Amino acid sequence: MEPVSFSVNGENIKISRCPGVYFPSDDTFLILDKLRPEGRCLEIGSGSGIISIILARRGYSVIASDINSEALSCTELNASLNGVKFEVILSDLFDGIRGKFDTIIFNPPYLPGEEEEAKIEESEMWYGGTDGLTVIRKFLHGLPDHLNRGGKCYTVLSSLTDIYSLKREFNFYRFDVLEEKSFFMEKIFAYSLSLI
């Protein structure tokens, strides 16, 4: 299949569609539009690799990780298509990650659904648990061990979840809404998080 070309902030990026791998969508571009990276960067859940590719093209030291080995192969393929190289790590969130970073990006599976939906093929790309917050909660518990003081995390949350309870639970983070986008049934929000 022919790679798809994207223009992101004036940069042309080629991305191949890979079976079983999250392809760039509105939430991806919401993060990319507001991403202001600094220093050493980590992308959790790299999917197709578009975010890590853009960071590497801009000269940042970047590590891409994903729980899905097919996603990592896709990330490496797309990195090669775009003439960049960076480290990729098979990891369930922070399990295989060592060290601290100045910028961490995570576009989590954030949609709520019934438990049976978790059994649907490729549901790990969108299913965030019955409340939509299961994956992001686990991520936020591990984030302080990997985010440098003064560093930022960029992520996406949905209005279909209880964002306010998440903010109360993780009140040691500063949550800043960077942008929101409305759809028929929901709004998605790009957030930057920093440790208080």
> How many β-strands, per DSSP?
9
Gap from first CA to last CA: 46 Å
Structural class: alpha/beta
CATH level-3 fold name: Rossmann fold
Radius of gyration (Å): 16 Å
Q: Number of DSSP helices?
A: 5
Architecture, CATH level 2? 3-Layer(aba) Sandwich
Q: Look at the structure and give the CATH class.
A: Alpha Beta
- Uncertain spans, ≥5 residues at pLDDT below 50? none
Main sheet attributes: strand count, strand direction, barrel closure: 7 strands, mixed
Measured as a percent range, the helix fraction is 10-25%
The run of helices and strands is EEHEHEHEEHEHEE
Any overview of this molecule?
It is a single chain. Strand 6, helix 4 and strand 7 form a beta-alpha-beta unit. It is globular and about 45 Å long. It has one domain: Rossmann fold. The strands form two sheets. A seven-stranded mixed sheet has the order 5-4-3-6-7-9-8. 23% of the residues lie in helices and 31% in strands. The chain is of the alpha/beta class and 196 residues long. The protein has five helices and nine strands, in the order ββαβαβαββαβαββ.
